[in-house]
Amino acid sequence: MKKTYHVCLSAGDEIMFRDLEDYNRGFNCFALALHKTGSTGLVEAFMATHTHQVIQTSDPKEFMWHFRQPYSMYFNNKYQRDGRLGENQHFTLEVVGHHHKLAAMSYTLRNAVHHGVVSIPYAYPHCSANAIFRSEMGKSHKEDLLLECHYSKHIGRRAEYADNYKMSESGVFLRETVLDIPQVEDLFISPRAFNYYMTRRSSEEWKEEQRKDGDGNSPVTLTEIENGIRLHSIDRMVSFEAGKADYRKVSDIDLCTELDQLARSRYGRHSVYQLTEREKQLTALELHRTRHLSETQIRRCLAMSYPF
Predict the structure, then answer these.
(1) What is the pLDDT of residues 132-185, one digit of tens each?
(2) Are residues 186 and 49 in the same domain?
């Protein structure tokens, strides 16, 4: 029997998605895992170091294995990296009740806001916020599709996928063909209500709404959704929600793309994972001195486990 879960996979301080191809491949692996396990996807958000997904499945552990195993193989092969990608145990939270589901989906879709990446969910391309109420919100632009014979380049030759999955020319399955968007829209009821949940502030009111479900379950909160994610404190996430973030700063995806290119052009390495400790130290000090980037971001994007 399918139940609704919020699942989160974190890589701690390591980057999981270093460039646009990685984000696309990550979502494709998510879509294939849904099909492989007979699960239903509702909403998701892919961040640089972790993923949040709200799904309906009979076995969240099996779903996560089918998601992370092929993505880890792709990532390790691409960057010539060894070892497990992501934490030992992913976080799983069963979500029961109408208002609990609304809260879990809202926090998932607002994840980029809470990490100070964007000011509103719709500005973040690696989540499903723009796939919900598309036509009603004026976002139903037509995307050029990739011929099916070219799908294998972006999912592997042996991958099995649902007949209704369609892929854009950029090499990622269209979210509206993978996710159960009608079910999500039914839960939010209207575009106006959906927009309200995307922009409302976190407060005790959210908890009170969930208590109306009468199932005795603890309210879904930002603290619970971000369980195990160490990038920012909850207080800082709430301040980001209020718009107190510097959106002009370089993003992880831009910095990672730049650093992998630098590893190839300057040092003749395949990616930052092949740089020596000395080469990483020199690169980190240069970035810190000339770009004034934080040590935390530099170490994260250089895959450094030690200070510089």
Answers:
(1) 999 998 887 778 899 999 999 999 999 999 999 999 999 999 999 999 999 999
(2) yes
Compute φ and ψ for 183, nearest 5 degrees: -65, -40
pLDDT digits (tens, 9 = 90+) for 223-262: 888 877 767 788 888 888 888 888 888 999 999 999 999 9
- The H-assigned helical ranges of the chain are 20-37, 60-79, 98-109, 111-114, 152-155, 175-178, 181-188, 191-199, 204-211, 222-225, 234-241, 252-267, 277-290, 295-301
**Domain identity same for 32 and 62:** yes
Residue 224 falls within a domain, yes or no?
yes
- Closest Cα partner for 83 from 94, 73, 93, 68? 73
**Beta-bridge mates of residue 4:** 56
Q: How far apart are CA 27 and CA 175, in angstroms?
A: 9
Do 92 and 175 fall within a single domain?
yes
Map tokens 């270093």 to a residue. 18
- In terms of domains, do 273 and 237 share one? no
Q: Is residue 246 part of a domain?
A: no
Cβ atoms of residues 90 and 227 within 8 Å: no
Domain span at residue 261 reads 252-301
- For residues 8 and 95, give the distance between their C-alpha atoms in angstroms, rounded to a whole number: 13
Integer Cα distance of 199 and 119 in angstroms = 10
In a 10 Å sphere around its CB, with 0-12 CB exposed, 13-18 middle and 19+ buried, how is residue 71 labelled?
A: buried
SS3 helix, strand, coil % of the chain, rounded to 5?
Answer: 50, 10, 40
Three-state secondary structure call for residue 101: helix
**Looking at the domain assignment, is residue 43 inside a domain?**
yes
107 lies in some domain: yes
